[in-house]
Structures are given as structure tokens and as C-alpha cells.
Amino acid sequence: MGQRKKLTFNDYKMVNKLYECSDKCPNQLPCRNGGYPSPKNCNFCVCNDFYSGTYCVTMHCDLQDWNSVRSIYNTTYNETLFTSGNNYNWDMFQKDDAGMIMAPEGRKIRVTVEKIYAAWGQLNCYVGCPFVGLEFVDNVNGDLSTMGKIFCCTKDEGYSFISKSNVIGYKAYASPGMPFDAAVKYTIV
């Protein structure tokens, strides 16, 4: 359950289901995209990091100040998806960014990790990447509520994969005092 740094969205979802927290609502909402009925307010769904709205259908990246959906068509993009800068704000546990990459319906996305930079190099290569990392969430039906592939080491450079659907979510994070940059290339296949 969870990761080293916090519980995941699906951990909370599982606990709510196990203890039947949402069953107090007389009418169950038709939550979408992996969302679940809120036990605190029966008129809303609890959504993952990539969706918002009453039923979790509005694409939304809800981590600090990042709000980005990248739509790709017939082009290859080389992009630095995350730069933490010096990241010495010790008042925050970490710096987070999130976004989505979308291809046209019926197409898939090839993602290649081009560059991973962490200030202490391979010293940040802990199992599960608890301090810095770039995570790609990718599922057959486009459900972005699950965990994904996490990269944080220079040995991950050159790793490539093809998405299972036309939508990929990504989250990047860096703990205070741990500068981290991640650059990827993505294209339609």
C-alpha cells in the first residue's frame, strides 16, 4: 500500500470502498476516469491528479501551478517536461508538476526518456524513486488513476515505450534540496 512518501489515490479509493464510506450517499454518482463518490459530499466525485469536475471528466492537472494537456498530431516533440531548479523551498515537502500527452483517437504515443539529471547522480537511484522522479501513467483504457513507470536515474536514459492508449499522464516531483530535470521525446505511432 502506498509508496515511501505518501498514500496513492488508489489507496484512498480502496479504503473508502473497504469501509463502505460512499454507501451513505442515497444516489451513487457515475464517476468516470477512475474517480469514486466522495464520502464527504454526495454531490461530487473524488478525482485523480489528471481530472476534475463533478464526475471526473474535465481534464485537469491539479498539482501546484502546472495545468497542461499536450495534444500531438504528426510531429515529434523533444521537451524538458520538468525542471525543479534549485528547489530549496523547505516549507514544501516537494515540488510537483503534472500533465497529459494526448494523440488522436486510435493512435498511440512513443515516449523516450532522453535525459535524466539529478544533482547527486546515481546517489538518487533508490528503489521506487522516493525523492525525485518522473512517472508516466498509461493503461489500455486510458485510466490514469493507477501507478505508472517511474524514472529517476541516469541509467533510465534511452528507455522507450509505446503507450497502451492515446493518453498518457505524467507526474514529476523533486524533494527540497534535490534538483532534478527530465527531458523526453514523444511522437505518434
UniProtKB/TrEMBL annotation:
Keywords: Hydrolase, Metal-binding, Metalloprotease, Protease, Zinc. One of its GO terms (molecular function) is metal ion binding. Residues 1-22 form the Peptidase M12A domain. InterPro entries: EGF (IPR000742), Peptidase_M12A (IPR001506). PROSITE patterns: ASTACIN, EGF_1. Coiled coil: none annotated. Signal peptide: none annotated. It comes from the Eukaryota. GO terms for biological process: proteolysis. This is Peptidase M12A domain-containing protein.
